[in-house]
Amino acid sequence: MRLVSDHIVEGRAGPTFAPAYPVLEQVRLTDIRAFTHGQPWDDYAAMRARAPVMWHEGPRTSGGGTGVGFWAVTGYEDVKRVNGDPETFSSEAGGILMGLGPEETRHPTLFSASTNSMINLDGRAHRQLRREHMPYFTASYMKGLRARVAGEVARLLDGVAPMGTCDFVEKFAQRLPIFTLCEMLGVPVADRERFVGWIHFLEMAQQVAAEQIEQLAGLAAPSPQIAAFIQLFNHNVGEMFEYGRDMLAKRRADPQDDLMSAIANAEVEGERLPGEYLDGAWLLIVFAGNDTTRNTLSGAMKLFTEHPEQKARLQADGSLLTNAVHEITRMVSPVIYMRRTATRDVELNGQMIAAGEKVIMYYGAANRDAAMFPDPDRFDIARTNAEKNIAFGYGPHLCIGRMTAQVQLEEAYRQIFRRFPDMHWSGGIDIAPNNFVHALRRLEVAFTPERRAA
């Protein structure tokens, strides 16, 4: 099985064809620090209105210049088209990330794993790997998983019940997805706490790379604190991959009825996955299986606090819960973008795109397109087409774990609003500098504590 990382087409700094739409100078989608204030909803709206397929210069490089530029796509139908046509807009030809960064800033294993995985494949290889995972993402499997998730929600809420205030991320939102994923993978209970730290460092990968690039370009002075953090980052990422390799080797030797065994023994073209793809599968399941659900759980709490009438509506009518989760997912859009590479010259909404050029789909922008979702910035748990959101993608790469996220969000808010009807975001928040995922690291909440019987 060939490695994607050996065949990636890097692309160009500037466009081949003249831009059909203006370049909006205020839009800086490569500035990761700007995303610490949340997603740029106003910029998305301006792009949809004036430049729905807009040329954007690439991220900063270690030489002080800019890297590979890209076409930023923000309209709902355009994002669906790109997602749904892998023959024209390939994941495999150029990878799904905005920029790979200079070699001197790459963690070698993290770079290899992030490019050599199911999500970076097209065609038959992608379908075969996806099929190997599917038994653990079906409706029948979710039915059995739901009871375990409900039990963990109750246990976590028991832990915060007497507090009255807490960091919702630390005490609940980061822990429920880790429990769920570890149950599916078959990770021993004693090892699960280690995942908390690994996820934290994975979310910091963009910041680490950006700070290294700034130092190499002479834009920032070398810092002992940054050097120490990079050392700690490398240690934790290395530890995560060592653990994954050990577990996958054990499952190859002694398969169990769990997702870890399915990954370890997956075959493409009659051959088991090489080590690089095992690393990639491990990274994908650890990061994607945790991060999006965690951030949507926290984002939901913020939304319900900002829209108390919707919270009251859901508390009065529990039958709205499933649709409410679709609307929460639309509004939060925890995955900010995915990238594709054009395999041929193609026209998209009046813009010619050349073969080899990068196309980035902004899911949050598409999910607030008024052409699809009337009054799109309004949070409405009864929105009739909320399920049409594309926060989990569309087409062949539709997220395999979307039902797992749905189950966790439903069970979480079913119990939270029953036991703590006044739980609300109290104002404290910390969003990571990350333009790939909307990563909430801290969300302070307050509520009336439960009284324990004497």
From TrEMBL:
InterPro entries: Cyt_P450, Cyt_P450_B, Cyt_P450_CS, Cyt_P450_sf. Pfam families: p450. One of its GO terms (molecular function) is iron ion binding. It comes from the Bacteria. Keywords: Heme, Iron, Metal-binding, Monooxygenase, Oxidoreductase. Cytochromes P450 are a group of heme-thiolate monooxygenases. They oxidize a variety of structurally unrelated compounds, including steroids, fatty acids, and xenobiotics. Belongs to the cytochrome P450 family. This is Cytochrome P450.
